[in-house]
């Protein structure tokens, strides 16, 4: 936030007394403060963040394929289904440079 403020205004912000959550970021008060600020600036944001995602996720089933080299999962997409070589993009790049040894 300080870097954004400095970039936007051209000068550093005035330093204030540290807040309680700056001493302990795990303190729940900070999370409540953030939740209150989000609710104030965008009422109903939890619907868009959680409920809408859950509804959309339940409509779509995802298919995953395992990489033959590293075993990592990759979501199959209709565009890449025809071009699936059996390895993930990272392993394909490493193989292209000769860094994968069978």
Question: Explain this structure to me?
Answer:
The chain is mainly α. The chain has five helices and two strands. The chain has helices spanning 2-9, 20-23, 28-41, 45-59, 89-96; strands at 64-66, 73-75. Strands 1-2 form a two-stranded antiparallel sheet. The mean pLDDT is 77.
Descriptive tags:
102 residues; mainly alpha; two-stranded antiparallel sheet; 5 helices
Report the structural category. Answer: mainly alpha
> Per DSSP, what share of the residues sits in E-state strands of 2 or more residues?
5-15%
Query: In which order are the strands of the major sheet placed?
Result: 1-2
Can you give the helix content as a percent range?
40-55%
Mean of residue pLDDT? 77
What is the 3D shape?
extended
Uncertain segments: none
Distance between the termini: 48 Å
- Order of secondary-structure elements: HHHHEEH
Taking the sheet with the most strands, its summary is: 2 strands, antiparallel
Number of helices: 5
Radius of gyration based on Cα positions: 23 Å
Number of E-type strands? 2
């Amino acid at each position: 936030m300080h870097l954004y403020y400095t970039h936007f205004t051209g000068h550093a912000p005035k330093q204030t007394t540290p807040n309680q959550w700056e001493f302990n970021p795990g303190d729940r008060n900070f999370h409540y403060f953030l939740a209150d600020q989000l609710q104030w600036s965008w009422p109903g944001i939890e619907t868009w963040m959680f409920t809408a995602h859950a509804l959309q996720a339940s409509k779509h089933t995802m298919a995953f394929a395992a990489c033959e080299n590293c075993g990592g999962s990759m979501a199959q997409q209709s565009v890449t289904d025809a071009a699936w070589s059996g390895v993930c993009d990272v392993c394909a790049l490493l193989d292209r440079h000769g860094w994968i040894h069978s």
